[in-house]
Amino acid sequence: MSDSEPTEEEQQNMSPEQVAELQKKNCVFCKIMAGEVPSHKVYEDDKMMAILDIYPAVKGHILVMPKKHTQIMPLIPQETLSHIFKNVKYLSRGVKQGVPSTKTTIFIANGGVAGQQSPHFLFHIIPRDNGDGLDNFNPPTKNISQDELLEPLKSSLTKMMQSQLQQEGKVLAQPPNKDDLAKIIDQNPQLKEAIINNPEQVKKEMETNQKLKLLFQGVNIDKLSDILKQIETAKKTLAEQEESTKKEEEAPKQTLPDKKKENKNLLDNITNMFTK
Ligand SMILES: [Zn+2]
After folding, report:
1. Which residues have a Cβ under 8 Å from the Cβ of 104 and sit 6 or more positions away?
2. How far is the CA of 248 from the centre of ligand 1 (A)?
3. Rounded to the nearest whole angstrom, what is the distance from the C-alpha of residue 225 to the centroid of ligand 1?
4. Ion ligand 1, residue ranges at CB < 5 A
5. C-alpha 172: how far from chain center
6. Interface predicted TM-score of the whole assembly (ipTM), two decimals
7. pLDDT at residue 26 above 70?
8. What's the pLDDT tens digit per position in 56-82?
9. Looking at 1-5, 18-22, 181-185, which range is the least confident one?
10. Nearest to 47 by CA among 34, 62, 63, 64
11. Distance 35 CA to ligand 1 centre (A)
12. 46 C-alpha vs ligand 1 centroid, how far in Å?
């Protein structure tokens, strides 16, 4: 392959790999990394590099990027991305102390439409101070219905995180469905007792106990407490009735099925306790 630049026609016939290779060859940041273009490096390790921006917004404006040429964030290996993001706060702190400045703006333009100008993924750390004259990202607000987007976004984010966590062998923490919650309560006598006898305490615990909070998300604890009380009372009555039926063999038996039915209705009721 010759060193001369490919013509426009040649470029159109290139494979995606060839295009990426050409981009990398022309990438000023890759040239900086290779030492072919001078720069002011302020930090470097095996995965990332930070340099002073040659067109700084203010004094101390730096660019942080992965060492390996990658055009967009989704293509950066997870390990490298984690390394970079994990260390952003330290780099930001370093900038604040080194400049010095009071705060920083950390900025990523993710794609051309979003203002990405460089073919090499990077983010900006810009030192900030009162009256520095820089614009904050403060677009005019619009009157947009939140309800319309809530469900599609929630569903899309949940699906995305579910598939991601599955790949990592983890599961997304979600509140149990009604039947599962009823089972969980039934299998935990202490929890059941607490809900029946001390709903206020349960509500208080939910403020700090993430597991409880997740378990009872969207559940009206007072209503749940009342329903459980009714169920327990009905069970007790039923047990007493069965006991007395055994003793009084001659007693009319038609009351028993009715009681059982009533108890069944109460158990069914547990699935209706989730309305706020
Ligand atoms: Zn590059």
Report:
1. 92, 95, 96, 125, 126, 127, 128
2. 90
3. 62
4. 27, 29-30, 69, 120
5. 10
6. 0.99
7. yes
8. 999 999 999 999 999 889 889 999 999
9. 1-5
10. 64
11. 13
12. 15
Through-space distance between the first and last CA atoms of the chain, rounded to whole angstroms: 70
The answer to whether 153 touches 161, Cβ cutoff 8 Å, is no
CATH for 8-128 is 3.30.428.10
Dist. CA 27 → ligand 1 center (Å): 5
Output 19-26 pairs: Cβ under 8 A, ≥24 positions apart: 20/69, 20/71, 23/69, 23/71, 23/119, 24/69, 26/119
Bridge pairing between strands 62-66 and 103-107: unpaired
Residue 48 Cα, ligand 1 centroid: separation in angstroms? 12
Contact call for residues 47 and 53 (beta carbons, < 8 A): no
pLDDT tens digit string along 119-144?
999 999 999 999 999 988 888 888 88
Q: Considering the chain, what is the average pLDDT of its residues?
A: 85
> How far away, in angstroms, is 30 Cα from ligand 1 center?
4
Ligand 1 centroid to Cα of residue 28, in Å, is: 7
Ligand 1 centre to CA of 124 (Å) is 16
Q: Indicate the domain borders of the chain.
A: 8-128, 178-272
Q: Token match 């993430």: residue?
A: 210
If you search the block for the tokens 């069970």, which residue do you land on? 235
